[in-house]
């Protein structure tokens, strides 16, 4: 039977959604998606939100969706997906059997995926902290730098001088603070001026 199996795991405002594609009874692919947590205690609501967003954007709708959590508007979503597919679609929260085992496997994968993401984030955080500590020591700063602004001056053969600024806060890029400046009151090539 053709089906998509959907499960999720959430923690601290992040939701990891795992999607298995089963075609002719065989698992042919899997994918994962990250969502903002919203109300993390409303798993059925998160599940429904994902189903609406995902199937609104994809052309391939299987005849069955196997969901980890029952969703409130299952009948409305079945009707919408059936119209999109051109044939009946059923949205199921399986309680036992092979379908339930597929959902449990997807659920386990979602939890492992979220845990791996957290470990990677902690590892990256350690690297950022280490880099900031080295910078603090190299520059003899009294504490870790919380904001770093880097400037670069460019010109074309001594004319059309521009400056650009990039910003890091707590060791991470803050792109909304990046700036570009046109410099009009300095003649020639004089980066310091």
Secondary-structure topology with pairs:
Elements: E1 3-11, E2 14-23, E3 26-36, H1 43-57, E4 64-67, H2 74-85, E5 90-92, H3 97-138, E6 147-156, E7 159-169, E8 172-173, E9 179-182
Parallel strand pairs: 1-4, 4-5
Antiparallel strand pairs: 1-2, 2-3, 6-7, 7-8, 7-9
Q: What would you say this structure looks like, in words?
A:
- The protein is of the alpha+beta class.
- It is built from 3 helices and 9 strands; from the N terminus they run E-E-E-H-E-H-E-H-E-E-E-E.
- The strands form 2 sheets. It has a 5-stranded mixed sheet with strand order 3-2-1-4-5. Strands 6, 7, 8 and 9 form a 4-stranded antiparallel sheet that branches.
- The longest helix is centred in the middle third of the chain and has 42 residues.
- It is elongated, with a radius of gyration of 25 Å.
- The N and C termini lie far apart (71 Å).
- The model has no long low-confidence stretch (mean pLDDT 88).
